[in-house]
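User: I'm putting together notes for a lab meeting next week and I want to include a structural view of one of the chains we've been expressing. I don't have a solved structure, so I'd like a prediction I can at least talk through. The sequence is below, exactly as it appears in our construct file.
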Amino acid sequence: MNHEVIVIGGGPGGYACAIRCAQLGLRVGLVEEQSLGGVCLNWGCVPTKALFAATHLIAHAGTAAEMGIEFGAPQIDVSQLAKWKDGVISTLVSGIDTLLTKNGVEVFTARGRLDGPHAVALSTGETLSADRIVLATGSIPIEIPGFSFEDPAVWSSDDALALTEIPERLAVIGGGVIGLELASIYSRLGSTVTILELLPEILAIIDLDRRTVSTLKRSLKLQGIDVRTKTAATSIETKSEGVVIHTAEDETIPADRILLAVGRRPNTADLGLESVGIEPDRRGTIPVDGQLRTTADGVYAIGDAAPGPMLAHKASAEGVALADALAGHEMRSFDYDVIPQAIFTDPEIASVGLSEQRAKEQGHEILVGRFPYAALGKALGMRQSEGFFQVVADASDHRLLGVQIIGAEASDLISEASIAVENSLSLEVIADAVHAHPTLPEGLKEAAENALGRAIHTINR
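Assistant: Thanks for the context. Below is the predicted structure for the 461-residue chain, given as structure tokens.
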């Protein structure tokens, strides 16, 4: 069956690419082995954030007495919570299915792999042909020696999000985004959580300043989450009362379940890359040029399969941009520094652009402004005064280089900053814009004013 474009992978990048291609008049086929929406919708971003929101209720109910409102001890129905979470996913998957159908995208429920130039072989035995093929196959969790997902005591993030039980003791191996987010969720659900991180710091591969990470670590400690850095998990010992993790530092950490969250790698194995001469790197990442073209004629790669941050919104943006290019339009270029990131810990963290440290490393003379949540009336009224806004700007022209926010609703607040950083807006543009009061976004304006030395509601630096 001939198509102009075949997309392998129905995640955020794949389905967005397919829909935009169809909108632009191309004949499109989408191949997805499991569920539409990919990892993000089914086993990643969406279920994590749904459970984050649900467990947020537990955390706030537990401290509501200080406002004069008291609740009884929460009763957690794990099966009902999992059912509700699955309902959120099902609604969104159904919506994607409808969008693909209404836009005329032909969907093939099968595993697809390259089968020579311009051909895709399906696990059903069918072969599709296409002028252009887009690889949008996402990523999978990484295992480490001594810890296998085949061991029933070892969870992947998929297992943790299935929500089959609430372990009394949960050990999380990996202090990155996934590990910290799930640690926060299970801590709220009642698990005693220990985080083991090999590197000297948590969130080590994210461009965050020390002040931001220190604020998070302080909050995690107050929540009862034990964070152990410079700790290498080496093996598991199974005992009648659970399991014990042995470390290279001769520590033993008892647990009932172990969440292995040391990162993800591109899901590009057994994809038939050799049939068209594509050589991925040692992690499985497929090299592409500025137009997202691989080394094989007519084959493209986007999202987690290609270089760059493993973020759903990065994949979607690439998918839409590539579709425009495949239809003959000019393709937008990407600066991965201006793609925002949100981390759903408690408090939330969101960032875009350069940190203070990285801006200095790149040779910028900088201005830095901060504003604490504790000085925001809205934050105090929400009983969420932990955190701050930080802006980093070039000292010569006041152009905004980066923003970090740690605090309530940081994931929503970063959007204004993203527009400002991507469009090289100045501190004055943010500071002079009238922001509604009392709101949380005022914190960004106040941080910009602080950087300019004209703050009203905090002491100028």
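A couple of points you could mention at the meeting. The CA atoms of residues 10 and 36 lie 5 Å apart. The radius of gyration is 23 Å.

User: Perfect, that's what I needed.
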